[in-house]
User: What shape does this take?
Amino acid sequence: MRARLAAAVDELRRAAAAHGVGWVRPENLHLTLKFLGPVDEPRLVDVRAALAGAAALAAPFELAVAGLGAFPTPARPRVVWAGVDRGGAALAALAGAVEDALAPLGVPREARAFSAHVTLGRVRQPRGDPALAAALAAAAGRGFGVLRVARLSLMRSDLSPNGARYTEIDGWALGARAA
Assistant: This one.
C-alpha cells in the first residue's frame, strides 16, 4: 500500500510541480486518530493507560484506502489526502474510543467530526491549481489496497527541516481484553 501511495504522490508531484507542496515521504504515511501535541513524561503514564483501554475494547478490522482528494476542496487545496473506503466506520469508532478515553485526562475533544484519511501532502501557500485538481479528480476512485488494522500506536513526532520523524512510544493489540 505504501508503494502505491508513494507512486500516487509522485504523479501528484508532477501535476503540482509549479506549486509548493510538502509531500509526505512513503515511510511517514499514516492514519492519525488523535493529535495530542506535547505530553509531559508524568502524564504519559495516564495517556498510555487510557489508550490501552481504548484498544482493548476495539476489535481488529480491515481498512481499504481508496481515492484522492483535498481539504477543504481540490480547487483550493490545503491538505492532499488518500481516503478510506471500507472500514471507515470501524476506524471512526476507534477514533471515538480514543477521544472518550483521553477526555477524562483533560485532552480537548476535536471540534470537527473525524475524517479518516492518509495525508499525502500539505500545500504551503494554498491557491487554485487546476492541474492538481484534475489529477485528484482523475484518481478519485483509485484503490491503494487493503490492510488489517490490529494495533493502536502512540507515536512521537520530531520535526526537522528534513521533515517529520515518527517513533512509536507504545502500542497495543486491538481487542486484547477479549483475547
Q: What stands out?
A: The beta strands are 21-23, 61-73, 76-84, 117-123, 143-149, 151-160, 163-173. The mean pLDDT is 91. The chain has one domain: 2-173. Residues 41-57 form the longest helix (17 residues).
